[in-house]
Design brief:
The protein is 32% helix and 18% strand. With 533 residues, the protein is α/β, with parallel strands linked by helices. The strands form 5 sheets. It has a 9-stranded mixed β-sheet, sandwiched between helices. A two-stranded antiparallel sheet has the order 2-3. Strands 10-11 form a two-stranded antiparallel sheet.
């Protein structure tokens, strides 16, 4: 007689059978990635990329716009690469990528853009993913490095001003939760220049999007920044004009004169002006005398040019539109801002965004153009809040930084913005959630003769240093948000010849504004021989 088993007995035995070797093998991370369908979760989106990328791979970015200058990206951790096209209006959309690392820290991070670009900064996304963040970037609403897509399309301007980052943040958080099966524990942002402004705009407009923001050289008061940059071409005149100052004169004659007057003010003659606010450069020291003539000296008209460039940009009532350029940056500034051609970002902004008129002539720029840009405030891009009250109330933290020889955005603007915030918030309260660091000897976002490597972005700014709060600003914002440890300094590293393999040349503990770096004596390459006071 055949044995008889009850259904209950079979059901009770089933878990035992499964646990005894009949379970399906665990899904690999690669399989999980390739089975993901992100377009099912983001309304009206379409998938552009879905691939597993193994550590050690070099991604060929064959579909990236050539003007962005990013043809490939090295990847140093296993990850799932997700790409979507997401509509933002009937006339606009964003390109979005989310990189989901196999070894996930539970953290989420958004990255910014630069200039007037629509270029996803893959190096920043890769850097974040390497350190365990689920990280995303977007094209900020348009492709490439020009502003032509803004012409007669205000929706693209809105994407550029704030909507692209916010849409990417909301979408990225949702997809991250679905992919990993749990919420991210904290959300961060990393950007410089325009990207710095984007982070501060997010804090202003969407105070719950991020818990911690790193905002480098932030392009705040954006409309007036564009106008300040536009003002240089009428000052310098075109290349070859009678009083044009060549880039060689800026980088040699003028720069050397500035160092002669200001380099020693910090107690060390090392080619670095530690605090440019102390440098009151007098160009009359290199004015032509007797029969002398440029390029070995400056004539009277050229002296006037230099004074205008280093002076605050003011309106007819002498009200400051934008601070003057800090001395020390002139060698690189002369290659773009004072190059004898219209500064491309400003030229295109006025043509395609402010006036929607491609025939606008940059040589006619005047104060009336500055007033019109500010009045229009395309897409609410200005970004100059009186406070970050709501962001602070949500527990958010901001670390800002600015190179003290920035060649594209004067570092004096970050000082001015901090002082602006102090009008509504006492310093004792402001420093609880907003701190800004002055990075001596650093150009725009990176590079320069100073100790400029401190983890502020992907690529060279993060290579060769540990992911530790003392030496890495991204690690510092994590420590402040998650452990309540607010940084007093950020230690930058200068590698010999800017090459990690050559070893460390020196380090410097950069001070937070308004404190200043003071040399205490001894070997100036040792960070311990400087203090903030």
């Amino acid at each position: 007689m055949a044995p008889c088993f009850s259904l209950l007995a079979i059901a009770a035995a089933a878990p035992l059978l499964i646990s005894s070797g009949f379970a399906a093998p665990a899904q690999t991370f690669e399989a999980k990635c390739l089975a993901f369908r992100p377009e099912n979760y983001i309304t009206n989106s379409s998938r552009t990329v879905l691939e597993y990328v193994a550590s050690g791979s070099t991604l060929a970015l064959t579909d990236n716009v050539a003007s962005c200058g990013r043809t490939s990206q090295a990847v140093a951790t296993n990850l799932c690469r997700v790409g979507l096209s997401i509509p933002t209006s009937t006339k606009s959309s964003i390109s979005f990528e989310l990189w989901l690392p196999e070894t996930w820290s539970g953290r989420f991070l958004g990255t910014g853009n630069g200039g007037i670009d629509g270029c996803l900064q893959y190096e920043g996304v890769a850097y974040a993913a390497l350190n365990g963040f689920a990280a995303f970037g977007t094209n900020n609403g348009h492709n490439g490095t020009t502003a032509i897509d803004f012409l007669n399309n205000k929706e693209v301007g809105v994407d550029f001003a704030w909507r692209s980052l916010h849409t990417g943040t909301v979408s990225g958080k949702k997809l991250t939760k679905i992919f990993y099966g749990k919420e991210q524990k904290k959300s961060y942002y990393l950007g410089c220049s325009l990207g710095g402004r984007m982070g501060l705009k997010a804090a202003e407009k969407f105070p719950n999007d991020f818990d911690g923001i790193v905002a480098g050289a932030p392009a705040v008061d954006f409309n007036n920044l564009v106008s300040w940059r536009a003002s240089f071409f009428p000052i310098t005149g075109p290349i070859g004009s009678s009083n044009f100052i060549t880039s060689a004169m800026w980088g040699g004659l003028i720069h050397n004169a500035i160092l002669a007057q200001c380099d020693h003010l910090d107690g060390v003659t090392d080619g670095i002006i530690e605090d440019p606010t102390k440098c009151n450069f007098d160009p009359s020291a290199i004015q032509c005398q007797g029969d002398a003539a440029p390029p070995t000296c400056l004539n009277a008209a050229q002296i006037s040019q230099v004074k205008k460039i280093f002076a605050p940009y003011v309106d007819a009532s002498n009200k400051i539109i934008y601070p003057g350029m800090q001395p020390g940056s002139e060698a690189l500034s002369a290659t773009r801002l004072y190059a004898g051609v219209p500064f491309a970002y400003s030229d295109e902004w006025f043509k395609y965004v402010v006036y929607s008129d491609p025939s606008w002539n940059a040589s006619t720029y005047s104060l009336s153009d500055a007033a019109e840009a500010e009045r229009l405030n395309p897409g609410d891009i200005k970004t100059y809040p009186d406070s970050f009250k709501s962001f602070a109330a949500a527990g958010g933290k901001i670390l800002s930084y600015h190179g003290q020889q920035d060649n594209q955005i004067t570092s004096f603007q970050s000082n001015r913005f901090y002082d602006h915030l102090l009008k509504k918030t006492p310093q004792s309260e402001l420093e609880k959630y907003y701190r800004t660091f002055r990075i001596s000897g650093m150009n725009h976002c990176n590079g320069g003769p100073g100790a400029w490597v401190f983890g502020q972005g992907g690529g060279a700014p993060s290579v060769g240093i540990p992911f530790e709060k003392e030496k890495n600003i991204l690690a510092a914002i994590v420590a402040w948000v998650e452990r309540g440890i607010a940084p007093e300094t950020i230690e930058g590293t200068k590698f010999t010849g800017d090459t990690v393999a050559n070893g460390v040349s020196f380090t410097r503990r950069h001070c937070r504004y308004p404190k200043k770096q003071v040399f205490t004596g001894g070997d100036h390459t040792l960070s311990t021989n400087w203090r903030c006071e």
